[in-house]
Write a structure and sequence with these properties.
It is built from ten helices and 47 strands. A hairpin with an 8-residue loop joins strand 39 and strand 40 (737-746). It is globular, with a radius of gyration of 27 Å.
């Protein structure tokens, strides 16, 4: 770091100064590299065009010599390049999506070629380039993603996006031995997922302090994953990466929580052959087998394929609560030329889990007011309560680039779900009898079937108007959801001992009390312009949405006949305009300060006392931050400060008790730091910190005179931090060994407020330690080339910890120590 760069950093504002100090302090180059100055960034303005012409323009500007056969680039196109980049970052960007590889053979000479073998790097060290970012530097190195489409719906370097975005790559998940979504995002700032062993449905997630229900924040391959928390689940083995967009994303994606979205990208066909099988076993009698194979299906690469599958038979720490799964995801790509491709993505998933809510009383968990409840206690009915779901989906991604350089993309997916859900819950979180040993447990039968169809159409083009460069995006997307469900409650509750549970009880059921059909239709039109002027980057996004929600309650045909009830129908139509504007300046040293403003909306089900449908909640965020992409090693560092407010939140009707009005509001102010770096070819680091100051700013008192104003929303910790480091030995006695360790801290958070007294009890924070070990068996014996043995563990010290439960006096037991061993073979 030279003197002038340090002086420039000190001239930043208070946020910039703190962030740059953290970034540069954490990102010092290795001693071996300290003697060579990092390459300087160069300003490029290369429009999308045929690849050969784009590479020639790049070579002239960068002063480099490019070596490649002319037929290698024939028929291929480049997405273009605009802004300040180092030569290596620039050529990476120009070659994105081409399937070609490059290597610097001398200081000023670059050789471009086709990939030579699986694994992404040829014998000469060429770097393979995927559809979005540079990949293939080794299975244990690429924890850092430098580009994504999640924040802009265009392939844009993350540093150029004026919004905080985190990416969890496949390599990071493999390095840490990730087996579920909670573990995948455990080191990501701004995200809190409730650890819920034995639980059912999608993970319960908070983004920047806002809870996302009904999959409002979950996306898969750029399309919303679903519309109900119990319709599906996530299998991380089938994912290529996870993109987390922080703050409102409605300007491109439509309805959603103001905290952001999570987009899970599934594995795709690849031009590089890959073959992987693995066997896993470990805690709670888990046995799992998986495979992932793919590559060209024809010699000319016109057809590509991928088959990913998994079978799991497993228990959990909760008695009578399995975690069984069958997962199969075939994918095929047809690319007749460099301008057109069609990828078919199919998926079948069957999951079996327990059906108990598992909200435990605080007196016998958090507080030492009596004997402790066992972490394996099941508050359900064995053999009756469960969550079994089958999902089948079929979708595609179509891309075409016109001769003018404009690109069209259409994504679509159909999903069918059959849900067999028998739920159990405690009637309240207090113990039922004087001796404090029993909880009343009831059961609800709630079978369900759902269908959904989603489609997104978008057109992207680049052009110049004078000195301004534009990348324009226009699109229309829509979704349809249709679900039918009945609910039948047990007519009796059974008292279950929390210390010596006896499940030898019967549950009686009467007629269904609910027989419903839900229909949701939504459509949105959006536009975006990413404007560059020298080193300035301006992003403007806008969207108009229309939503129609139809709810039918047939009240059971028998109830209609016996009691004279009538069918009920509620129809709500909403529309909303949302937007985002962000401005950044990209310095030649890899630092980009930025500021942005964005808005969101989310429909709200139900009606007020007069039968009027609720309006959508609205959200707005002000964010400022600094991003840094070092030139001399692969890394990305982000610091951001933000304020999010949400309006039209439901609160008590001050006149008609038992009903709601939309007078509530919530505000979250926060600060986030994140750094991911491949410091050297051997050493990877991930670090994050989150500070959240969340508060209910508007609320009406309830019938007891209790108001939430000034309280902290349940489940939102003020502080969270994480650090992960991984070192790979590449020579000496420990050659082939990879060792990793991490620590996660989650601060205290409040349980659900008691409605009568307004009491808000704090649930203590906790610190968890994780570790991973991986050994390349091919180093031990050449005949074992391609085989690896891995061991990963979370919560190694078996720390007891809890997260707030669903009720005012309840908590959920955290996940105990979990250790898995994996034997994998790749060829």
């Amino acid at each position: 770091m030279d003197v002038e760069r340090a002086r420039a950093a000190r001239r930043m504002n208070w946020l910039g100064s703190a962030a740059v100090a953290l970034v540069l302090g954490a990102a010092l180059p290795a001693p071996a590299r300290a003697q060579s100055a990092p390459p300087a960034a160069i300003s490029f303005n290369i429009p999308a065009q045929d690849l050969g012409t784009a590479l020639t323009a790049f070579a002239d500007k960068a002063g480099l010599r490019l070596l490649f056969p002319s037929d290698l680039v024939a028929g291929r196109r480049s997405v273009g390049l605009s802004g300040a980049y180092t030569p290596e970052a620039a050529i990476s960007r120009l070659l994105q999506g081409t399937g070609l590889v490059y290597r610097f053979t001398r200081g000023n000479t670059v050789t471009i070629s086709a990939p030579a073998a699986a694994g992404g790097a040829d014998a000469g060290g060429a770097i393979a380039l995927g559809a979005i970012e540079v990949t293939g530097l080794g299975d244990d190195q690429q924890i850092v993603a430098l580009a994504t489409s999640a924040g802009t719906k265009t392939n844009t370097p993350i540093i150029d996006i004026p919004q905080s975005i985190s990416v969890v790559t496949r390599q990071e998940m493999d390095q840490r031995g990730v087996q579920d979504f909670n573990a995948a995002v455990a080191y990501t700032p701004g995200v809190r997922v409730v650890d819920y062993p034995g639980g059912q449905g999608m993970p319960d997630i908070y983004l920047r302090g806002f809870r996302a229900i009904d999959q409002a924040a979950y996306y898969r391959d750029g399309l919303r994953s679903g519309f109900n928390a119990y319709d599906s689940d996530i299998e991380t083995y089938g994912l290529e990466r996870i993109d987390v967009v922080k703050g409102p994303a409605s300007a491109l994606y439509g309805a959603g929580v103001p905290g952001g979205i999570v987009d899970a990208i599934t594995k795709r066909p690849t031009a590089i052959p890959l073959h992987e099988i693995e066997l896993l076993g470990g805690s709670f009698d888990r046995l799992q087998g998986a495979f992932d194979i793919g590559g060209p299906a024809t010699s000319d690469g016109t057809w590509l394929y991928r088959l990913t599958g998994l079978f799991r038979d497993s228990g959990t720490q909760i008695d009578f609560s399995p975690d069984n799964r069958i997962y199969f995801a075939p994918a095929v790509t047809y690319q007749p030329n460099a301008q057109t491709s069609l990828t078919i993505l199919a998926n079948y998933q069957k999951t079996e889990k327990g059906g108990s809510e598992q909200s435990l009383p605080m007196a016998n968990t958090v507080f030492d007011l009596g004997p402790k409840i066992s972490p394996s206690l099941y508050l359900g009915a064995p053999g009756l309560t469960n969550w079994n779901v089958e999902n089948t989906s079929l979708g595609y991604e179509f891309k075409h680039e016109f001769d003018t350089g404009w690109r069209f993309q259409q994504n679509a997916r159909y999903i069918h779900s059959d849900i067999n859900f028998n739920s159990a819950w405690g009637s309240d979180a207090t113990l039922a009898v004087v001796d404090g040993q029993y909880i009343n447990v009831g059961v609800q039968l709630r079978p369900k079937t759902s269908d959904s169809f989603l489609m997104d159409n978008r057109l992207t083009g680049t052009f110049n108007t004078g000195p301004l460069g534009h990348e324009v995006l226009v699109g229309v997307d829509g979704g349809y959801y249709n679900a039918t469900e009945t609910r039948t409650n047990s007519t009796n509750y059974n008292a279950i001992s929390i210390f010596t549970p006896n499940y030898n009880f019967a549950y009686d059921f009467g007629l269904p009390w609910s027989d419903t059909q839900s229909k949701l239709m939504q459509i949105g039109a959006y536009a975006q312009d990413q404007i560059t002027l020298g080193n300035w980057l301006l992003t403007v996004s806008a969207r108009q949405d229309w939503v129609r929600n139809e709810e039918f309650n047939f009240n059971s045909r028998t109830l209609l006949a016996d009691f004279g009830f009538t069918d009920e129908e509620a129809v709500a139509t909403d529309s909303a305009f949302t937007g985002r504007v962000g401005l950044g300046y990209k310095f030649d040293n890899g630092i980009m300060p930025y500021a942005s403003y964005s808005t969101s909306f989310q429909p709200v089900a139900g009606t007020d006392f007069e039968g009027n449908s609720f309006k959508p909640t609205t959200g707005e965020q002000y964010e400022a931050g600094i991003k840094y992409e070092p030139a001399n090693f692969r890394g990305l560092f982000t610091a951001s400060v933000f304020q999010i407010t949400q309006q039209n939140v439901l609160t008590n009707d001050p006149i008609n008790f038992g009903y709601s009005v939309q007078d509530g509001a919530v505000r979250v102010r926060g600060f986030e730091l994140e750094g991911k770096a491949n410091i050297t070819s051997n050493f990877d680091v991930i670090a994050s910190y989150t500070y959240l100051d969340a508060e209910v700013t508007q609320d009406n008192p309830n019938e007891f005179g209790t108001s939430k104003v000034g309280t902290v929303p349940s489940g939102v910790p003020q502080n969270a931090a994480a650090l992960w480091a991984y070192y790979t030995f590449r020579d000496g006695a420990l050659n082939g060994l990879g060792l990793g360790g991490g620590v996660r801290y989650i601060g205290s958070s409040y349980a659900v407020m008691e409605t009568v007294s307004g009491l808000q009890v704090s649930v203590p924070g906790y610190t968890l330690v994780d570790a991973a070990l991986r050994y390349d068996l091919g180093v031990l014996d050449r005949r074992l080339k391609g085989a690896t043995l891995s061991i990963s563990g979370t919560n190694l010290f078996d720390t007891d910890y809890y997260t707030p439960g669903f009720y005012w006096n309840s908590v959920i037991y955290g996940t105990r120590r979990t250790v898995y061993g994996t034997l994998a073979y790749r060829w």
